[in-house]
Amino acid sequence: MAEDKFEQAVIDKLKNEGWEYLTDYSGVTVDRLYDHWRDILNANNRKRLEDTPLSDNKFEQVKLELTKNKTPYDAQLMLAGAGGVGTQLELEIFYGDEVAGGRSRYEIVN
Q: Helix, strand, or coil here: 20?
């Protein structure tokens, strides 16, 4: 199967499972994807952030912490200060207790 056909088959399968395909974010730069994710973090953590969006510096810290981890769950633990590693920033990145529903968002880009 050609790569483009395989990619489309994966997209179609995920869409059938309830994921949202974001045409406006497909084929864009990594920075634009980060901006989108930052908007999601700000919205999901509005109360924790006291209605103050993440500053550029804080968001860079989030990105740096994520690159140190192998999984999003590991990153969530680090950002929450688990395992003796503390931080002044505590964000909810994903809702582990709401997989496949609830407040969780599932988005696809290519």
A: strand
Q: Is 39 helix (H, G, I), strand (E, B) or coil?
A: helix
Distance of CA 106 to the CA centre of its chain: 9
Q: Which of 56, 51, 58, 68 is nearest to 31 (CA)?
A: 56
Classify each residue of 49-77 as buried b or exposed e, where b means 16 or more C-beta atoms within 10 Å of its C-beta: beeeebeeebbebbeebbeeeeeeeebbe
Tell me what pLDDT residue 110 has: 86
Give Cα 47 distance to the centre of its chain. 18
The predicted-structure confidence for 12-41, as pLDDT tens digits, reads as follows 999 998 899 999 999 899 999 999 999 999
